[in-house]
Design a protein that fits this description.
five-stranded antiparallel β-sheet; Phosphotransferase; 8 helices; AGP_Transferase; alpha+beta; globular
Length: 250
């Protein structure tokens, strides 16, 4: 594939594990771990919802076509998407969760619990967050650490990964964390920092869910994310982001 008349290369995200560049209507993903790329390509092929078209793959690069529409929103910023768009996102997630499981596993409950303990210890030992904030959110997170029936999960369903055009979902991107997982984890990541849209998402999802478990995943995800964000040059203390999510549980 030859791209002509390209005016600029946009760096979408870049750190020492992976980088994503946008060149016109093509996204180039470069990943040091080709296992993640393997998962992404296979998950997109299996998912029953709109995903980016794979244009070509030449390790370590993967070229994907841009999906139409705009992101549902971004963490730390108000979403301008309609309640119907949020409900459509919930419906798309339900369709994914009802699909056959992928052949590879996801993280086990024990792995998640062990990582949570390690991250909480690190946050306190390094004075990154107040002890009472970590302790309270660790208590809240406990509700997520229960057995669940595995479903086909996206695994990193941030609102910036869901694209809509009006009230229709046009594409879901970034599938490298897909696998077996807890359905409520996907719903929690989709609504992280946007609690006001949880009702719309659940309405679109179309079944009763345990809201306390979703809130527990908000705490758990935020506790796990802080160190990684800091070490990769991101700021979890930005307004509306992970640390504010943790504070909201106090």
């Amino acid at each position: 594939m030859i791209m002509t008349d390209v005016e600029e290369v946009e760096v979408v995200v870049a750190h020492n594990e992976r980088a994503t560049l946008r060149v016109g209507d093509v996204f180039l993903k470069i990943d040091a771990d080709q296992t993640r790329t393997d998962v992404e390509v296979e998950a997109m092929a299996m998912a029953p919802i709109p995903t980016p078209e794979v244009l070509w793959r030449k390790p370590p690069a993967l070229a994907l076509a841009a999906v139409p529409g705009t992101a549902l929103g971004r963490l730390g910023e108000p979403s301008t998407a309609s309640p119907a768009a949020w409900a459509a996102a919930g419906a798309a997630v339900r369709m994914l969760h009802d699909a056959p499981l992928p052949p590879w596993p996801g993280r086990s409950l024990n792995e998640i619990a062990s990582q949570l303990d390690s991250e909480c210890e690190w946050l306190i030992a390094n004075d990154v967050l107040p002890t009472d904030l970590v302790t309270r959110n660790r208590q809240v997170a406990e509700a997520a650490l229960r057995p669940w029936t595995p479903v086909f999960t996206h695994g990193d369903l941030q609102i910036s990964h869901v694209f809509v055009d009006g009230d229709k979902v046009t594409g879901v991107i970034d599938w490298s964390e897909a696998g077996h997982g807890d359905a409520l984890y996907d719903l929690a990541i989709l609504t992280l920092g946007h609690e006001e849209h949880l009702g719309d998402v659940v309405a679109g999802y179309g079944t009763d869910v345990d809201l306390d478990v979703i809130r527990a995943w908000w705490s758990l995800r935020s506790l796990l994310a802080v160190r990684w964000l800091v070490e990769h040059g991101f700021d979890p203390s930005s307004p509306g982001c992970e640390i504010d999510v943790l504070k909201s549980r106090m």
